[in-house]
Amino acid sequence: MVSYPQYNLSLPGWDYQSVWGWDPARETFYAQLVREGRDPIDDGLDHWISPPTYPAIPRPADLAEIVAQVIDLDTATVRAAMNASLPSQAEQPDHPLRQP
Fold first, then answer.
1. Per-residue pLDDT tens over the stretch 63-79
2. What is the longest distance spanned by two Cα atoms in the chain?
3. Count of CB atoms situated within 10 Å of the CB of 84
4. I need a labelling partner for 21 at 20 to 30 A (CA). Which of 8, 15, 43, 57 fits?
5. pLDDT for position 59
């Protein structure tokens, strides 16, 4: 089994257990969002942004826009959080998922 990275998505009002990543089986980026104060095991996810509920999401920038719309946050904040979850720029300045 191949392991694909999953990244934390630390957003204002959303728990540290929120994540984003790449689903190779569906060939799409996805996000699983948990509101602060909720337990994803007991309460489930607040939002699971992935097919079939959403069309395939081919680029991280597209995922950032959808997440921003779903949780009513500006896209720049979501992009910044996604970038912050990646390896540091000093370690990997040209990480393929880093967004401008």
1. 999 999 999 999 999 99
2. 38
3. 12
4. 43
5. 94
pTM: 0.86
Which residue is associated with the tokens 């007991």? 42
CA–CA distance, 41 with 85 (Å, rounded to integer)? 23
DSSP string of the chain?
-----EEE---TTB-TT-EEEEETTTTEEEEEE-BTT--HHHH--SEEE-TTTS----SHHHHHHHHHHHHT--HHHHHHHHHHHSSPTTT-TT-TT---
Q: What is the pLDDT of residues 16-54, one digit of tens each?
A: 789 999 998 889 999 999 988 777 777 778 899 999 999
